[in-house]
Amino acid sequence: MNDGTGIATIPQLAAAEKNSASTRIASYLLTDYLEQLGVEVIFGLCGHTVIALLDALGKSRIRFVSTRHEQVAAHAADGYARASGKPGVLLTHLGPGITNAATGVANAALDSIPMVVIAGDVPSHFFGRHPHQEINLHMDGDQFEVYRPFCKRIYRVDRPADLPRVVERAFHLSQSGRPGPVLVDVPMDIFSADLPVDAFQKLPAPVARPAIEPGAVSTIIQALAEAESPVIYVGGGVLSAGATAELARLAEAFEIPVAHTLMGKGCMREDHPLLLGMTGFWGTPIANEMCRTADLILAVGTRLAEASSSSWDPRFTFAIPPTRLMHIDIDPAEIGRNFPTEFGVVADAKLALGSLAEAAKAGYRPARGGVRARIAAGRREFAENWAHQRGSDQFPMRPERILAELRAAVPEDGFIVTDVGWNKNGVGQQFPITVPGTFITPSGLATMGFGPAAVLGVKMAQPSRAAVALIGDGAFGSNPSVVATAMETNLPVVWVVMDNSAFGTIAGLEKMHYGWSFGCLFERNGETYTVDYAGIARGFGARGIAVQSAAELGPALKEALASSLPTVIQVPMENAPTPTPGHWNINDIYRLGS
Ligand SMILES: Cc1ncc(C[n+]2csc(CCOP(=O)(O)OP(=O)(O)O)c2C)c(N)n1
Question: What is the rounded CA–CA span in Å between residue 573 and residue 400?
Fold first, then answer.
C-alpha cells in the first residue's frame, strides 16, 4: 500500500479508509445524528447536490416533506418550529434552491425562530472552475454569503471532518440565546465522503437560560410598585420562552395592564381584564393610549419595533421619555436601541418574569382599582366600531364577519396562521386568542406567502389540532403549490382565502394617497380578474369550496375542519381597510405630484 517510498499516498489512504469497516459515508452518519437529535421531519426540495442525503433520509425514520418551491419549504419549517418548539430543518439544493429559500429563512430570522438550513453546494474539488449553478461572482463557492445578513451563523463545510462539528454547532446556536436560523452549506462531495463511524459524537450542550439577578428584581419591583400608571409591554419573546403564566402572575399581583406587539398576541387570554391588546398602527386605541401615558413601561421580549411602536412617534404609542423604560430581553442588542432605557436586563423571559412574580407576591399592593374598568371600557368602545359587521350578510363578505365565523368554528386550541394583509392586521387587532401560541404570523419580515406554507409545518407539528391559514388571494396566488404538498403529506389543513382580487392592503394605501390603485389590482383587459382558487384546489385533488353567501362560510369551515382532506375555502371579500389607531411614518412620506 505505498508507492515504493514506504509512505502511503493520499488516494491509497482514502481507498484503505473506504474499505475499512470503521468508516461510513457521511450522509448516512449525518442522518443517524439528526435522528439522535430528535429531528422528525425535514422540509425541502431536491437537486443533484442533495440526493446523497435524500437517499439516507429515505432509509431513516425522519420524514422528508418535499415541496414544490423552496420558499414553501422554508416557511413550513418555520411553522413547524413555531408549533413544535423544536428547530425547523430545511434542506435545499444549491444556487436557485438556496436563493429561493432565502425569503423564508429571513422571515424566520426576523421572528427569532430556530432553524437549521442544510444546503448542498458545488463539489469542493471544482472550486475555482465555476461549476454548474455555483454562485461565485465574488468568491468561489460563495452561496453561503447570501444568507449572511439574516443567519445567526453561516458555515461552509470545507472538509468532511468538519461536518459533525458544524452540524452540532448549528443545532446549538439555532436554539441558544435568541433563536434563529443557522446555515450549514455542504459541498456535495462531502455528503459522499467517508467519515469514521463515530465522527458524530458530540451533542449540543444543555444550556441553562440566563436568569435575572436579585438586585435587578428589586430595582424593577420597586419601580413597578411605585409607578402610578405602569404598563407591561410584551413581545414574542414571552411566548417563545413559555412565560405566559409568569406574566399573568406579575400583572395580577400589581394590577398592571398588559399591552403586546403582534408577535406577543396570545401572551394573555384575550378576555383577561388586564389585557389592553396590541399597540401600534393596527393596534387598539386603549393599548396605544395607556402605553403613551404610562409613567413606566416594563418591556419584555420585544424589539420595540416600528409597526407596534407607531414609527416611534411620541404622539401615538410610546412617549419615552417622559415615560420611563425598563427592558428585559434575551438579546443585549435589543436593549436601548430605539428608546432611552433606564434599566436593561439580559435574561430569559420565563425566568425573569417568574422571579418578578415571586417577588411581587411578597410586596406591596398598589391601589389601581380603576384600571380594569378603564380597559374594559376602552376595548368595548373600539370593538363597537365593527360589532355590527360581525353579523353582516353583505356579500362579498365583510372581513369582520369572516373573523367571527372563524372564531366560532375553530377550537380555542386550534392554530390561526396568517399571512400579510387584512388577515394579519385584522386578526392582530380584533381576533380573540385564548391559548398561547395558537396565533402564528410573519411579523418582522411580513412576508406575503408565509401563511399558506407555514400552516403545513404547523399541522405537521400538531396533527391533532386544527390548523387554519387565513390569507389573502395575493398570498395564496403566489404559491398555490402548497395544496399539492398538503395532499402528498396527508395534511388536512384549511386555507381560507380572503379574495378581494387585489393586493388589497397596498391597493388601499395607494388609493388613499394617490387616488387609485395602479399596479395593485388583479385585472384583465381593464376588468377585475377573478381566479377560481377553489377549482385550483380540486385540481390538486383537494377539496375546494367557493362560498356564495355569508351564511355559507360557517358550515364550510365546519365541513373543512372535519375533513381528512386539505380544503381551500374561497371567500369573496370587500377590500375594507383595517382600522389604524396608531401611526406609520410612511404616510408622511408619500407626495402626490403630476
Ligand atoms: C413577498 C412580499 N411582497 C410584497 C409585500 C408587500 N405587501 C404587503 S401587504 C400586500 C398585499 C397582500 O395581498 P393579499 O394577500 O391579497 O391580502 P390583502 O392585502 O388583500 O388582505 C403586499 C403585496 C410583502 N409584504 N411581501
Answer: 10
